[in-house]
Amino acid sequence: MNIQQLIQQDLERLYAEKIPESAIQLQKTKKxxxxxxxxxxxxxxxxxxxxxxxxxxxxxxYLIANQPSISEFNxxxxxxxxxxxxxxxxxxxxDIHRTPKYGTREAGKNAPLVMIEYSSPNTNKxxxxxxxxxxxxxxxxxxxxxxxxxxxxKTNIVNDRGIHICxxxxxxxxxxxxxxxxxxxxxGDHLIGDYYVKFDQEYKKELAELEAxxxxxxxxxxxxxxxxxxxxxxxxxxxxxxxxxxxxxxxNSWVYAGFDETYxxxxxxxxxxxxESKTYLEGKEKVLEGLKKGVFYSKEDGSVWxxxxxxxxxxxxxxxxxxxxxxxTQDIGTxxxxxxxxxxxxxxYVVGNEQNYHFQVLSLLLDKLGFAFGKDLVxxxxxxxxxxxxxxxxxxxxxxxxxxxxxxxxxxxxxxxKELGKLxxxxxxxxxxxxxxxxxxxxxxxxxxxxxxxxxxxxPKESIxxxxxxxxxxxxxxxxxxxVLRRKDATFYAQEQINVCVPISEKEENLIQIIAEFxxxxxxxxxxxxxxxxxxxxxxxVKEYNQFYHDYPILKEENEExxxxxxxxxQNIGRIIQTGFSLLxxxxxxxx
Length: 592
Hints:
The chain contains 23 helices and 14 strands. The protein is of the alpha/beta class. Among the domains are: 3-84, 2-Layer Sandwich (Gyrase A, domain 2); 412-583, Isoleucyl-tRNA Synthetase, Domain 1 (Orthogonal Bundle). Strand 5, helix 5 and strand 6 form a beta-alpha-beta unit. The protein is globular, with a radius of gyration of 30 Å.
C-alpha cells in the first residue's frame, strides 16, 4: 500500500468513521521544515471536532503508535509534517527495482486513441527553428501520451498548395535555368526555399519601380505582373493543367526528400502524412453538405459562410465566391479523412499560439458537422521561439535553418567535449556518435525544458554546458552512473534486493522520494501536455544525485549492504533518466 492508503486506514480506526480518500491531502514537506510528507488536516476537522493544531497532534501521536512507516512528526499550525521510516523508503526502492517499465503504462486494446498533428510544413521552404520546436513538442507529447496508456497516431499535414507554392514554382521556372538538387548539391527543400526568397526580392523590386512611376503601394500591388503570373499559375494548377501540375509534382518531390532528411536527423517520425492538395476537395464537399443541411449559409455572391455569432464569435468564410477553399475548409477536409481512417477519441493539434482563434472556430465547425472529436479537440497552443537577435522572416531569408542549426549543435558539442577532454581515447566513429548525441540532446532539452505555452529565446551557446540545467549535464550524469555500474562486481550488486535494515542517510531517503514521484510526473506531463514537467523533474533528480555522488562513496563503501543499496539506487536513477529522456526524444550515451 502507498502511504496515503496506510494513513487513511489508520485514521478510520482512530475516528471509527469512513474517511474519503479526497480528505487525505498529502504534500511534499517544504524544505524549511523537517519531514518527508505533510498532511493537511483542515479537511478532517469536522471528523475530529478539534482545532487544527489539536487534530494534527492527535493524528501524529496515533500514527507514531500504530504505523511503523512513520518514525517522527511535528506540527506547524494546521499542517502535520511526517517523517517516513527508512525501511519504508527501502521497500519503495525495492518495488521500483522490480518494475521493468517503472513510471509508464502500456496501452490496452481498448485504450483511448489520440491523434497528434505536428510539423505542418509548407513546401516552399525548408524547416527552420520554429519547426524544430513544433516537431520536438509534437513528438514528445506523443511519447508522453503513450507512456500514460493511450494509443497514439502521429500525423503530419503538408501545406503543398496555394499561392505561396506557386511563387516558388514561378521563380524557379523564370530564373532557375533547370537547376536541380543534384546539379547544385543542395537539399531540395533548400533549393526551393531559395526561389521563394528570389520571388519576394523580385516582387519588391517591381513594386518599387511601379511606385517610382507615381503609383500608390496598393495600385502597384494590383498592377504587379509577377503576382498576376503567380495567381494564374495557381488557377492552372486548380484546373489540372498538365504542365503546371507536372512542375508542382517535380518540385514537391525535391522538398519531400529534403524534409525526410531533416526529420531523420531530428529523430521524429509520423504514422500518417496528409497533404492539403488531397484534403481541400474533401473539405469543399463537407462544406457544401453543411450548406445543404442548413448548418452554413450562402451569400448573394455565392460564397459560403458559417454564422458563429450565437457561439460568441463572428461569421466565418468557408468557400470564396469563385468556389475556392480557405485554410478552414482544408482543415475540415483533413479532419474528415482522418476520421475515416481512424476511430479518433481525441484530436490534438500542435500549432503555434497565433492560430488560437482558428482552432476555436474549427472546433465549433467540426462539432456542427457531426465529428465526435470536434467539440473536445485540443489545440496545443505553444509560444514562438526566437533568437537573441530577434524574430525570423522566411520571405526575407532570415530564418535559422533547421539543418544548419543541427550541424552547428553537433559541431559545438564536439568542440566543447574535446576541450574538456571528454573524447579522450575515443575512435573517430565513437567521437562522432557522442557529439551527435550530445549536440541533439542539448538542442532538444533547451527547447523542451521551457513551458511550451511561453515564448522563448534559443541561445545555442548556452545550451551546451556540462554544468547547470542543460541536456549535456544530465547526459554526463547518466554516463557517470553507467561507468560506476560497469566497475567490478557492480552489475551483480545492482541486481540485488536491498535489506530494509540498511542505515541510509537523509539525502538517500530524499532521492528515493524523488524517484517515487516519477509516475505522477509522467501523468502530470500527459494531463498538461507539457514535456517541460519531465525535463525539469529529471534536472532536479540529477542535481540531487550529483550532490549525493560527491558526498557519499559508492564502490569504496566498506559496508557491503550499504554498497549494494547505493548501487541499486544509482542504477534506478539512471533508468529514470533514460526513460524520462526517451519521452523527450533524447538519447543518452553509455560513455562520455
